[in-house]
Recover the amino acids of this structure.
């Protein structure tokens, strides 16, 4: 064990001790509470299955208390000047940065993502707050729209209390990606983190508290989707739901939220293609293909889980890819050398492994991996997996596996590539590798996805829109798109008193 690894284990143990010793509750109206019923669930470690502590399951009464607190705080938070909100949110970012190491170690231990990636969690989370904080003073600004005898102008106002429901794959970053623009817009928030990885959300709520957010502006409830999540989506005080998770859950939420006619924003699943043409920069494409499916344990919505590889370079590319996948370092998430860690939960682990059987049944080849790793202890470890000889009809090409598992599919022509890429219910991201500029332009337009990267892995740009089409989502995050979701637009029309007002009923 390297000294760095040992230090990480020791530090993580110190940070995790309080969660092991004390039941984690909810943060409602500026106070920590164990809730109305106090029923708990066990938060298991992906590394060895041991308990990381008990967490309270929110009851309907707890959710109601959180939503009412958010509703009560809404007026004052919305009335606060954007400049003041900006100051508070920057302070919150300071608090996150001050606890960056703790956040990384806790998050890595809780969800199994290797520390080498999770080190960025707090940095990116803080950057989200700073970016949206800076936009807060101008968030209400609208447009001036002139007519001959009237002037129209638009003003924007916060929609009201927002429910934020997040998944377990990169919980800290994703939560800040939603909560930061909501707060900057002037909305109060009730956050429900995923039950598989609740710890970093508690640290985030503590940072909010330390930053001096007024009570009720930020509320956090723990618990399961079927009770806590469902109640949040149905609560009449909640005006919008920002959801990140599986497509099937998004569909349930749309139904649950229908009676109260909520605005909903969905960032859902994907089966994203990376399309590598014969004329691609071989080495850069290979690096990106490996990175975009095996980083973050493949538990990443924008992972490129389908490799579409052109016939001319197929054999050479797959041979090089195979060697790289075989060489990936699987290990403890806190080991700085680890490239692939354990999967978040036994349920998810079994789901991912089931696709090895599906691949064989459907006639694909398991070129690399597909096995449980047992010599790393009792954790959810599997060998990074590569399926070859696959076609797009197979389950491994159609269903989101959400693990370090790549399905390679051969194509011959540009038209074939487009057909295969689009033959999916999903449409989140696509990656195109070619040195032909015209082709990259044609492909970028023809591929059905919310985001396309040309000759690049997923590169993040906060002002750019992020989101999916088809079953991958509704709505966009990022830049002003986030404000559009969390705010209402009002049109004000003022006459010059020169136009003829229609006259009825005059003698
Ligand atoms: P999930 O849908 O199972 O759970 C997400 C959240 O929804 C959890 O907090 C859960 O408790 C809650 N939930 C479950 N049922 C609910 C219900 N009926 N009502 C309200 N809330 C409910 O997703 P997951 O397994 O935690 O996360 C993995 C999924 O998230 C993958 O499909 C992945 O692609 C997707 N994801 C998408 C993006 C994106 O930006 N498009 C980003 C990250 C993850």
């Amino acid at each position: 064990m390297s000294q760095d690894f040992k230090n990480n284990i020791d530090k993580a143990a110190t940070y995790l001790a309080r969660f092991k010793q004390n039941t984690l509750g909810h943060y409602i109206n500026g106070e920590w509470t164990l809730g109305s019923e106090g029923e708990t669930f066990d938060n298991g470690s992906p590394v060895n299955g041991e308990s990381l502590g008990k967490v309270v399951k929110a009851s309907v009464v707890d959710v109601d208390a959180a939503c009412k607190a958010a509703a009560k705080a809404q007026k004052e938070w919305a009335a606060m000047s954007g400049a003041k909100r900006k100051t508070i949110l920057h302070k919150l970012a300071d608090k996150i940065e001050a606890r960056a190491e703790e956040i990384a170690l806790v998050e890595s231990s809780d969800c199994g993502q290797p520390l080498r990636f999770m080190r960025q969690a707090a940095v990116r989370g803080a950057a989200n707050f700073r970016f949206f904080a800076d936009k807060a003073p101008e968030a209400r600004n609208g447009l001036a729209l002139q007519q001959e005898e009237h002037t129209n102008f638009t003003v924007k106002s916060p929609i009201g209390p927002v429910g934020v429901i997040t998944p377990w794959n990169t919980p800290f970053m994703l939560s800040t990606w939603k909560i930061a623009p909501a707060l900057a817009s002037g909305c109060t928030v009730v956050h429900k983190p995923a039950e598989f990885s609740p710890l970093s959300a508690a640290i985030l709520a503590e940072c909010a508290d330390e930053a001096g957010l007024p009570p009720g502006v930020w509320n956090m409830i723990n618990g399961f989707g079927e009770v806590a999540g469902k109640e949040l989506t149905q609560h009449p005080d909640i005006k919008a739901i920002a959801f990140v998770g599986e497509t099937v859950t998004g569909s349930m939420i749309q139904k649950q939220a229908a009676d109260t006619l909520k605005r909903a924003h969905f960032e859902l699943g994907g089966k994203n293609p990376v399309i590598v043409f014969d004329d691609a920069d071989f080495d850069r494409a290979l690096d990106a293909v490996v990175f975009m499916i095996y980083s973050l344990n493949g538990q990443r919505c924008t992972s490129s889980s389908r490799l579409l590889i052109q016939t001319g370079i197929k054999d050479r590319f797959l041979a090089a890819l195979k060697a790289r996948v075989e060489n990936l370092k699987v290990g403890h998430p806190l080991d700085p050398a680890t490239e692939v860690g354990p999967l978040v939960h036994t349920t998810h682990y079994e789901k991912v492994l089931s696709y090895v059987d599906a691949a064989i049944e459907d006639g694909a080849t398991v070129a690399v991996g597909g096995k449980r790793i047992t010599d790393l202890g009792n954790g959810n470890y599997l060998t990074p997996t590569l399926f070859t000889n696959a076609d797009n009809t197979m389950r491994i090409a159609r269903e989101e596996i959400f693990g370090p598992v790549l399905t390679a599919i051969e194509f011959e022509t540009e038209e074939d590539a487009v057909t295969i890429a689009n033959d999916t219910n999903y449409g989140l991201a696509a990656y195109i590798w070619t040195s032909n500029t015209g082709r990259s332009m044609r492909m970028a337009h023809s591929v059905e996805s919310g985001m396309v990267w040309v000759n690049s892995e997923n590169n993040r740009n906060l002002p750019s829109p992020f989101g999916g089409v088809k079953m991958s989502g509704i709505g966009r995050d990022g830049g002003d798109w986030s404000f559009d979701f969390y705010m209402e637009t009002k049109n004000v029309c003022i006459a010059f008193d020169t136009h003829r007002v229609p006259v009825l009923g005059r003698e």
The longest strand covers residues 150-158. The longest helix spans residues 115-135. The domain at 3-268+468-491 is CATH 3.40.605.10 (Aldehyde Dehydrogenase; Chain A, domain 1).
